[in-house]
Amino acid sequence: MGSKQFHAEIDDSNPFLYLVPIFEVGGYFGSQFVFKNIIASVEKTMPLEDKLKKFQTASIIKYAMLEGPAFLAIVAYNASGNALPLVIAVCLILYLAVQGPNLQKILDTLPLTSDEKRKLQHNKYQ
User: Is the dihedral of CA 19, 21, 23, 26 positive or negative?
Assistant: First the structure.
């Protein structure tokens, strides 16, 4: 076992205590911005398969932009033993957990025709 202790002090000499929040905020807002821009490029006239591919791409990029700062926060905690980056990592991971795709999010997010919504709701999409 290492000799590092669990603490939550502000240490001005630790650059991670400044980098982690900056990356966390950047990752959060960046993920929202990229996701919305990709979804905004989806046209109602596109085939359903293309709409779902765009949603998948937007979601994967969004998740990656949230995971990166979470991993940085875990590394910062591991390097410093300071609990503040760990708290940020836990918050990001919990937020990421509730961002998972589901049918209702797809229906609410994508510009779908009523026929496409019906296909998705009745699992008739092939």
Answer: negative
